[in-house]
Amino acid sequence: MTQPTDATTGIVLNIQHFCTNDGPGIRTTVFLKGCSLRCKWCCNPESIHPKPELSYNLSKCIGEKECGFCLKECPEAALFALESDGKVRVNWDLCTNCAKCVDVCPPHALTLFGQQMTVDQVLDEVEQDNNFYNESGGGITVSGGECLLQPDFTAALLKGAHERGISTAIETAGNVPWRFMELVLPHVDVMLHDHKLTDPVRHKKWTGVDNSRILANFKQAYETFLTTKFIARTPLMPGVNDDEEHIRSVLAFIRPHSHVVDYQLLPYHRFGENKYNFLGRVYELEDFEAPAAETLARLRAIIDEAFGRGSNSAAGGQAEHG
Amino acid sequence: MSTRIALNLGGGFVPGVNAVITGVVLAANQLGWQAVGIHDGFEGLWFPERYPRGGLLDLSALGEGLNSSAAVIGTATKVDPFRVRTINSENQVEEVDRSDQLIELLRINKVDAVISIVGPRALSVIFKLHRKGLRVVAVPTSVENDVAATQLSFGFNSALSCAAEMLERIREAARSARRIGVIEILGEHSGWLALQAGIAAGADAILIPEIRYDLGKVAAKLKTKLSSHTRYGLVVVAEGAQSAVPEAEPQPVNPLKASLAPLATGHEGEHVIEPSGFMAKKIARNLQKLTDHETYPLALGQLIKGGNPTAVDRQLGLAYGAAAVRALHENHSGVMTSFVPPELKFVPLSEAINKIRTVPANSLFLQTARSLGICLGD
Fold first, then answer.
1. Which chain A residues have any C-beta within 8 angstroms of a chain B C-beta?
2. What is the mean predicted confidence (pLDDT) over A157-161?
3. Minimal CA–CA distance to B272: which of B289, B305, B249, B302?
4. Three-state secondary structure call for residue B217
5. What is the DSSP letter of B76?
6. Boundaries of domain holding B283
7. Which candidate, A130, A180, A220, B8, has a CA 20 to 30 Å from the CA of B270?
8. Cα(B187)–Cα(A292) distance, rounded to whole angstroms?
9. pLDDT band at residue B247 under the 50/70/90 scheme
10. Dihedral sign (CA A185, A187, A190, A192)
11. ipTM of the assembly?
């Protein structure tokens, strides 16, 4: 069968098969680069910057003496070898992400997070798991970063997926101009969207911006796209938003809309630090603990009650922040 | 016309920083120059409206207040005008290059030169500003003493004294509790602080990033010490210490997923964030297994960055501050003050960046530790 072709391109971070937490069924999640928030707990720091960027995994470096090609290749002198172990380090302040070192690094210690791909390239990869989608009710999920910051690419991707008979979902934090959301949502079957904090001042403190536009976008989306299923989510951060007040205010926001079919809590847990190291960044929340099981159960019970479900419901039960 | 110099702080407070500021102001006064402080890194220039008296603080008017001037000026965790986090017209957070604007703002504020008191990483930022034409001198601060091209960064001596005293106290506590104290000390790449504090406090073993450790050897050393009369020990570990024995690769949590997507980012279980004190806990747990003796882990962490400066740091701070002004007076730019006894000199920033000052294999401190019978894990 001849597939329609689409050469629209976007900056893709990763395509991850067999995801079970990013919407119904078994899904393939396509992570796009670029985010308009700076959540302090971000577990995908490699998705924040909109363009491809250098990543360095020290443990894979074989050393200056044995290799050292990258040191000769870097036009900015942004790489140097440490005397004590002979391995390379990146001076992140001098690096311009030109990626010349990536091409000459045999052990792939230096790699690039993100690459330009066409819609067809992505969909050809996604389509490989068609049988899983059909069996499980899954499909493609476009995530990020913030997938709606590449609205033309995301819309083309989802439209193309529909044309190939693949169900579609997106994960969004909603901090984009409404016109971006309006462009993409006609092609979305399920929209997973984040309610991170209720209070606008605290939202700004923890994510970088207040939530007024985010909430306006969600409300308009609920009211405009009546056949789309919406799933609200909260990445549950201990001491930040793991309180009843936030959960109840999200419920008050979503419950008037019957096509918001679920509200899931994604408990914070420690990961991502390696990726922060790979990018030469500092993780600010290293001493955060995962929320207590009792807290999680208590808050999920409130949600179950609001949705008229038994407390043993599986809704959100297996979802994890990520 | 009088020269106007601006001073700013990056990388957090370190004992001795007030001495550097005092040194700058007094030396500037001697030349008839005016010294101002930029609030919170460079934020005083970008957001002067946030400060009741404007973004620049006249340091010459502080008088006795100079002794606590660092707290008044404020610091920024990262002094980087090349990546300033802003909210754009679309309400999106983004990092933008504001270096040109910074240089223009300095010109508008009639600032002729900048003295930046910064840690090792920000030296590269200062180097880039110098390349863009800014007259700038850096003063190195590091409690880990890991800045290259100088033998001593200010702040190190105070942190070392604090760490040594804390270790002494912990050793006494370990003796009372009949346990092996495993104490983690700052030092991701460089073991100076752990090594020197450990020697000073009479540790049984010191593990530093420069020497890969074998815990079996540490346990053997402790076992020779532990007896019915001596039932305690003290192990100092730098946070960046690494085992000589490769540790087991984390297993993918979901093998099916791994087989389907071998190149995928990986399950979150592969990217566990280690909280501070993780090294102390790991070493303590493993040593307990190897020695059958109770251990307890503790991380000194950021505690050692507080407190009063030692006399060495006061002197060094004053000297660095005065030297930074002298560098500008002698028309140097793009340099860092450097103390290589007996000289206090200026070195080009290009010689200080892209290097980390680590403990060399022939270090006198390593020789001393070995002579004293301290196990270094090798």
1. 14-18, 31, 35-38, 43-44, 46, 77, 80, 82-85, 89, 91, 93-94, 129, 149, 175-177, 208-209, 213, 269-275, 283, 286-287, 320, 322
2. 97
3. B249
4. helix
5. B
6. 158-305+361-371
7. A130
8. 32
9. low
10. negative
11. 0.86
